Amino acid sequence: MMDKNAIENKYFNWLADIVKVGNKVSYRKLLAHLHNTNFVYKYVDSSRASDGEDLRYRFYNEIPGITKTDLLYLDSPCSMLEMMIALAIRCEETIMDDSRYGNRTKQWFWNMMKSLGLSYMNDDCFDRDKFHEIMDKFSKRDYKPDGEGGLFTIRGCCKDLRKHDIWTQLCWYLDSIS
Fold first, then answer.
1. Which is it for the CA torsion 126, 127, 128, 131, positive or negative?
2. Is the per-residue pLDDT at 4 higher than 80?
3. CB 30 within 8 A of CB 130
């Protein structure tokens, strides 16, 4: 059995590997901050939090040597990183799965990062204050009606995305790009 720090580090590395883009630019600071930021949500988005927390069981099933007892160390509320990765996976596996394109989980994740305004924050450009400002706006749904500053930007959208749950926003976003 591993100690709490070892499990938490192994889990974070596993999450980061899911959305890693190449080897030239690192986003570890940004991903670590997302992982250390609780996903703040209203009841309508509780399924997004549950999906994020369920990634811990996927980790257990995919990584040899992880025990059910080890999972007890991963007891914090759902993080922003977990929610976003789980949403990207759910998008790919339940809606957009198409063998012609391969696994696009990273694409869905980084599209959300771009919409939030975080995609430029690699380790060399990470701005902690700006990060917290963006997360604060997201958690208060203080982003633009078309979703810019939130998870999904839909140019020319006639609906105010701030008034709808994340799943609905995702579905409208996917409709707008297909």
1. negative
2. yes
3. no
Q: Is the pLDDT of residue 42 over 90?
A: no
Burial readout 131-149 (b: 16 or more C-beta within 10 A, e: otherwise): beebbebbeeeebeebbbb
* Angle separating helix axes 28-35 and 4-19, nearest 10 degrees: 120
Q: Name the pLDDT band for 1 (thresholds 50, 70, 90).
A: low
Region 34-60: mean pLDDT is 94
CA distances from 35 to 23, 164, 167, 173, 175 (A): 20, 24, 21, 24, 29
Q: Position 79: which residue type? A: S
* C-alpha to C-alpha distance for 75 and 142, rounded to whole angstroms: 29
For residue 177, the model assigns a pLDDT of 86
CB atoms within 10 A of CB 126: 18
Residues 145, 148: Cα–Cα separation, whole Å:
7
pLDDT band at 97 (very low <50, low <70, confident <90, very high): low
Average pLDDT over residues 85-114: 88
Interatomic CA distance for residues 66 and 171, integer angstroms: 34
- SS3 of 79, please? strand
